[in-house]
Amino acid sequence: MPTFNTLRLDPPQDAAEFEKIVNAAADIKWKGTYFQRYGRPGQQQDGVDIYGCSGPDEGMAIQCKNTCHSLPFHVVLSELEKAEKFRHPIKVLFVATTQYNDKSLQDKMWELSTGRRENGLHSVLPLFWEDI
Question: Is 124 exposed, middle or buried (0-12, 13-18, 19+ CB in 10 A)?
């Protein structure tokens, strides 16, 4: 019988439900950081679905992508461009996806983050369904 740690759950079909799951998982993973969903469907969110803050100068943003099979890198770049307009401080932008772990996407995002940090910009990192 599978345990909680070995149980494989299918991702939700509904994007709003996925956001709720990611918000709850972030609250558990990053204790001491208060997370809440940012805005609501139909409002301009500047590439951020969930925002968490642990202090006045530190922010963690999460963009949720309920994808069918894979998250194309150009979508990550598009969401990153939107998040550049976000008016609250961001230390790291996570792109949460229902996609399973993918080495190619990880490598591209980690390389992008390295270059951004060298230029004083926030990181952009993947958060895959298996991690959530």
Answer: buried
Tokens of 101: 């772990």
For the segment 39-87, what is each residue's pLDDT rounded down to a tens digit?
887 788 999 999 998 766 678 999 999 987 889 999 999 999 999 999 9
Among 127, 55, 59, 58, residue whose Cα is nearest residue 97: 127
Taking CB atoms within 8 Å and a gap of at least 24, the contacts of 118-122 are 122/90, 122/91, 122/92, 122/93
For residue 29, give the amino acid letter.
K
8 A C-beta contact, residue 24 and residue 36: no
